[in-house]
Amino acid sequence: MRCPYCGSLDSQVKDSRPSEDHAAIRRRRVCPDCGGRFTTFERVQLREITVVKRNGKRAPFDRDKLARSIEVALRKRQVDPERVERLINGVVRQLESQGEGEVSSEDIGELVMEGLKSLDDIAYVRFASVYKNFREAKEFGALIHELEAKPGETVDPDGDID
User: Fold this and answer.
1) Domain extent listing, the chain
2) CB 109, CB 59: distance < 8 Å
């Protein structure tokens, strides 16, 4: 494992233990060259997933990028980090279990929105505003009305509940 401080390709594992949810192995490492200490996580990856972006470009799926986008939506919100980790793991598991080697960025966005909706309404609105590229305030209003709608009710594009 490359040292993040000096770039050395050699590091020693000092301690290994399962993470809180037992979905990963947490390893404490030390670099023999500079003495720097750092932590790595080892996770099971069932298959390689390629993300097909809106512009048609393809990129390897990056779990850390997914986690960062969820963390941005949850910034300054009081949400248990364990629940956030479960959301991230759930999205990754759903993507891996679809059986597809390629997945669209829209599908990932929908899975994240679904998870955030049950986790935190504010984070859901934040994420949706970027994901759906809102340009006007009424689009926020329609999304908020959708959150307030009871099961079975529909919201028309103007934000009115039917």
Assistant:
1) 10-44, 49-131
2) no
